[in-house]
Specification:
This protein has 6 helices and 7 strands, in the order βαααβββαβαββα. The chain has 171 residues and is an alpha+beta fold. α1 packs across α3 and α4 crosses α5.
């Protein structure tokens, strides 16, 4: 189905196309909303490739090794044994096929077994119904809501706070 590995410099062209598509970045990082030129996207991508503080993994189709997005863990805290999960699937032809759930499970497993994390959290825009379903399927539980925390399409909407604990995930 999919596999995760470090992003390659040649994957940059995918991100240029995806970040320039308003539908793809609608519920993604707010920083994507500010990347308006190829030069800005190239700089962002170079920063991701060189980032040693976070876990950034490319999402690749097993069938043809095509990059369809990236996912990982950020805000890693060794003291608190916690991190924040993120995922970005840019290839719209792969949406709704279960890849988001599979990627989420693989990153959770990595976080809990390899990084010895106790808690992994995320925030998701409430209108992102597909994302919410994938996170619930992967084991996340809703903790709360950041009210009107995101501005898209000319209006504010809520962000849902979710987390999963190691004790709930690994038996």
């Amino acid at each position: 189905m999919i596999y995760l590995q470090p992003l390659k410099p040649t994957d940059n062209s995918y991100f240029i196309n995806w970040i320039n598509d308003p539908e793809v970045i609608k519920y993604s990082l707010s920083s994507f909303q500010k990347l308006n030129t190829t030069k800005q996207i190239n700089q962002w991508f170079t920063n991701v490739l060189n980032d040693t503080k976070n876990v950034n993994l490319g999402i690749y189709l097993t069938l043809n090794s095509q990059c369809i997005g990236y996912a990982g863990l950020t805000n890693l805290s060794i003291t608190n044994q916690s991190a924040e999960y993120f995922i970005f699937i840019g290839d719209k032809t792969t949406w709704g096929k279960g890849y988001g759930t599979e990627v989420t499970k693989q990153v959770l497993n990595y976080g809990f077994t390899k990084l010895n994390l106790n808690r992994i959290m995320l925030t998701v825009s409430k209108p992102n119904i597909g994302g919410v379903k994938a996170y619930l399927k992967a084991g996340f539980k809703q903790e709360g809501v950041f009210r009107q925390a995101c501005f898209r399409d000319g209006k504010f909407h809520d962000k849902i706070i979710m987390s999963v604990l190691k004790s709930e995930y690994i038996q």
